[in-house]
Amino acid sequence: TGNVEFSSNGAPIQSCTAVPVSTFGVATCVTSFVPAGTYAVSATYSGNAYIAGSTGTTTVDSVSVATATTTALTVSPSTATPLSAVTLTARVSPTGATGTVEFFTNGTPIQSCTAVPVSSAGTAVCVTSFAAAGTYLLSASFSGDTSFGASSSAPVALRVATKAPPPPKRSPIVAMAADPATGGYWLVTARGNVYNYDAPWYGSKAGEHLPAPVVGMAADPATGGYWLVTARGDVYNFHAPFHGSEAAKRLPAPIVTMAADPRTGGYWLAGAGGNVYNFDAPWGLSAGQSLPSRIVGISADPATGGYWLATLSGDVYNIDSPSYGSEAGRFLPSPIVGMASSRGGLGYWLVEKDGTVLPFGQATSQG
Asked: Torsion angle, CA of 255/279/171/188, rounded to 10 degrees?
């Protein structure tokens, strides 16, 4: 019989001060310990008329439950060239974590980024580079610490693209296209050479025999790739789906340019005589059979899904899109050589051979 008093680090545990001993000689008390740490726990038996009192001591380790974390990875820039600097930033949330972050490429640790300490702001930063062109899947893993659990980021893709050499003097530039993902652009020559500027390089037709010179280029807003078109209507796709071409067909006039449809991901080819050929893009009408001069440009209207055609003399034909004016009937010191639509589709620009840019609608002059 008798009672048992339980103590922690020499102080009685309030809920366990007089626990009766059962007929089996056992006294049980359930309690908890806060904060985490090691506690010296003792049990003192009071004794009774026949049995003397006694004390026993043990240790208890109290383990805290780690706070869950998330790790997010950002990569800058998203497109790089071989051996150029790439900054990897891992952000661990919530803030307050210590520990380290390890960065991986395609599941393999990056040797210079294996144990990057987490700052007081909750970030770990590593600058590295990649020697070969290709696509790399990057990720970051937080080790965790005594108070915060481990976590890993979702993979982030990095494109490393080889920069093309400068164009040869005998290979004139005939078209360009903007990269909607990076803000850079590509230039293409009549022989099919493609040159990239802050945009990934996916290949070209350089050194290959072409049935006709390249005359146009368009970027695929869905994949970030591009298409080339020849005067004969051949279409070459690079990291972009092939939707068709006019290759080997008898055309009333040569192809002079092309444009991508931002709504469908298809494209249009435009002939010098005003004929428009659509591939997975809506077909409205052509400019007509009697033109004052040949077609030199086509541009998609992102607002309506239609397009505009421009001629050498400054005429603009609107197909399923509003008209914002033209240079028809006016004297031009230099012929029109191309056109582009504004971002919202509420205007367009014409460009003369001497570099003069003519704005229409809500397209503003930038010089």
From this structure: 140
Cβ within 8 Å of residue 8, ≥6 positions away:
33, 39, 40, 41, 60
Rg of the chain in Å (alpha carbons): 36
Contacts of 290 (CB under 8 A, 6+ apart): none
Q: E strands along 144-190, which residues? A: 151-152, 156-160, 173-178, 185-189
Structure tokens given for 314: 């400054």
Phi-psi region of 106 (alpha: psi -120 to 50; beta: other; left: phi over 0): left
The DSSP 8-state label assigned to residue 208 in this structure reads: S
Residue 63 structure tokens? 């383990």
90 neighbors 103 (Cβ within 8 angstroms): yes
3-state helix, strand, coil in the chain (%, to 5): 0, 45, 55
Helices (H), 61-212: none
**Residues 217 and 228: beta-carbon distance below 8 Å:** yes
Q: How many CB atoms lie within 10 A of CB 338?
A: 20
Nearest to 321 by CA among 359, 284, 291: 284
Q: pLDDT 10s digit of each residue in the chain, 367 long?
A: 799 999 999 999 988 999 999 988 899 999 888 777 788 999 998 998 888 989 988 887 765 677 899 999 999 887 788 888 899 999 999 988 889 999 999 999 999 999 999 998 899 999 999 988 888 999 999 999 888 999 999 999 988 877 655 555 456 788 888 887 777 788 888 999 888 887 888 888 888 899 999 999 999 988 889 999 999 999 999 988 999 999 888 888 899 999 999 888 899 999 888 889 999 988 765 545 577 888 888 999 888 888 988 989 999 988 888 998 888 888 888 888 888 887 777 888 888 877 788 888 887 766 5
Closest by CA position to 319, among listed 272, 264, 267, 276? 276
The Cα–Cα gap between 270 and 281 comes to: 13
Helix/strand/coil (H/E/C) assignment for every residue in 303-353: CCCCEEEEECCCCEEEECCCCCCCCCCCCCCCCEEEEEECCCCCEEEEEEC
